[in-house]
Amino acid sequence: MSRIASIEISHHRLELDPPFKASWDGRPRHHFDATIVRVRDEDGREGIGSGDLMKGFDGHEDLFIGQDPRHIERHYEVLSHINFHYGRCWPLDLALWDLAGKVTGEPVWRMLGGRTDRVRLYASSGVLRDPSAMAEQAEHYVQEGFTAMKVRFSSSAGGRSSWRDDVKALEAIRLRVGDRLELMVDCNQGWRMPWDTTLPWTFKDSLIVARELERLNIYWMEEPLHRSDLKGMKALREATSVRIAGGEMTRELYEFRDIIEERAFDVIQPDVALVGGITGCRRLVYQAREAGVMFTPHSWTNGIGVLANAHLTAGAGDAPFLEYPYDNPEWSEARRDFPLVQPLTHENGWLELGESPGLGIVLNEERLKATRIG
Questions:
Q1: Where's the Mandelate racemase/muconate lactonizing enzyme C-terminal domain (predicted)?
Q2: Average pLDDT value for residue range 113-130
Q3: Helix (H) or strand (E) holding 38
Q4: Distance (Å, rounded) from C-alpha 277 to C-alpha 280?
Q5: 20 to 30 A Cα–Cα from 204, which one of 4, 130, 221, 241?
């Protein structure tokens, strides 16, 4: 029987030149950090996870060492308690699934149900460009085979001056690519960076924007209100034909239960690296399906997080699209996936998961050594 022998956590930093100015931040980012979690069994096999910083995990290793890594539900319960008392340590769940796949010789997507071995992607942009540049970027996505794109609205005074300027960017994209792309919009109203005190939109603000998005045939509007306003989200959902999406930074699975039961969103977007891991989010796949709510994860961590969300979506889910963070040159696949030997690549807007046991992660050990900060 396989038993967990050790858990290792390391922190890494990639310097960014030119910097990445994310629409949800406003402050240029001059580096990109990644936390790598390794779980080894007594036979030398290694499971890998990544995502949040694993704050609060130190000192809890003994709760896992000596256990069978395949006892995923048991480990999930322990991680849920650590999450309550300390921080988001869900990357360990990803590493355990990766290790369990290597023990059994199966890819995680098949272990999760085996619905399919690939997912269709939407290109998720992150930079606030002027309308003509946004239209040019959309054309590039079309040429690469994507059939959907997410456009960011500014979250604070550090970006475009108002949502009306954001709509102008959408109009330029529609004029350029027509209906060749489904367009999603991230309104960036659900949460703020710690330094950003800008108030979120009111319900009436959001409804006015929704009317503009209806005119432009937008597939969904994401986080149009503060994350706590479920009644407002439900009312907005009922008032507009645009799908309402959200939940990317939600901390607890029971919050998603309430969202689903209230039919507050049309689309839920948990990220397995940030809430519940693969084990917890697998529950949400089935709850959402039975309620007629779309499940399609957030995935703005790194390539390991993208892979983990993709395996869940392919194996158990039925989402029409999965988020693929990708906005050259500031957010290239090479930057996003710097811990990997090779960055993930798409084939005409699809991510193929293949037959490699576990999550199919191959780390670039030399780069990780060169970028290690802790």
A1: 131-243
A2: 97
A3: strand 29-41
A4: 5
A5: 130
